């Protein structure tokens, strides 16, 4: 993956993470607010119930005193009314403070005090009804119980107020830095989104420039192909015709007048014939090279490389038998390409491995195949890193070559050996490189002197890599 795309991906992932954090914070904050509101409501209910309880206890106290002073039953009505609801109020308070151990214990104590107070008050009312005297101790004890109830209830209410204040202070403390956190996270998300947009804009501009450069290169390639076509025409007509005459006349001399020539004349005639043969081979190789360029009117077709290999083995079967060569191969892929050029590619590579074999050692040629990601191929950069390639390797046990010639051997007319050692024109590997370029692929060589050579071919697997003719059609739309 290219760095801009990696940065964009990381930026978007970071934004998503920050947005998730904001969502979680918002959810937690809403949950805390709801819980806080519930706590406040419960605290207010407890305090209201506490006020109601103490009010009813005061009603009971006032009703008792009014009856004791006047002996009139009308004063007992508030007493009995309060008596009926006190129990319910206490039960409600117990439900409200059930999770607060301190208040629950205090409420239990208050419940006992109220029960004792009601017991004393009932006893005093019964004595008053019986017209019997009430001892001052009973009245004093009744008053003390009431005072104790008031004190306990005040402490109960004060504790609830303290709980309410603590929750409020905690809320203020939690909310104090929350806006800063939200602003920081939001700003970070915005900056990351802007950075992602910047990376995308940068990459878009690069791709636009790349497309413009591609269009310019296609124009140059078009002109180069036209020039090469003109050269091919000259080579096929203007050069081959006089060469045929030279070979024809030298052939006549060899048949009819060879014996009539002295030794010097015979040697000269032999040199003319050999030079003409080399010239014929050179012209044929140049024509082959030009045909690998002139493919503008062709589109890719499905090619089974296993079938191509079988055809090539059949074509060079005499050389294979003569050198007792062994070709070991794996199952090769089916690709999109030009069958004629791929056959020429395999032909040149196999012929080279057989030609540059060691004296007295039978050639062994291994052909392997695998799929590779573009990012795992060290010399591939840019958009091609995202593609998948078929990697095909030709490895032999021949004479090899020095490592510093790995690039030079693909240059046209470059030879590492003299003509007297190995025949050839120095065009074969240049044709291989041209064929790989026509298939949007790559070729490079590895070698070690005396230990053989390896030729690595990389064909793109994806069918959207089209040839120059198809690219021109797309650009013209």
UniProtKB/TrEMBL annotation:
Keywords: Kinase, Membrane, Phosphoprotein, Transferase, Transmembrane, Transmembrane helix. The keyword Membrane applies. The chain crosses the membrane at residues 7-28, 178-202. Residues 234-463 form the Histidine kinase domain. This is histidine kinase. Its EC number is 2.7.13.3. It catalyses: ATP + protein L-histidine = ADP + protein N-phospho-L-histidine. PANTHER family: PAC DOMAIN-CONTAINING PROTEIN, PHYTOCHROME-LIKE PROTEIN CPH1. It comes from Emticicia agri. One of its GO terms (molecular function) is phosphorelay sensor kinase activity. It is an enzyme of class 2 (transferase). InterPro entries: CHASE3 (IPR007891), HATPase_C_sf (IPR036890), HATPase_dom (IPR003594), His_kinase_dom (IPR005467), HisK_dim/P_dom (IPR003661), HisK_dim/P_sf (IPR036097), Sensor_kinase/Photoreceptor (IPR052162), Sig_transdc_His_kin-like_C (IPR004358). It comes from the Bacteria.
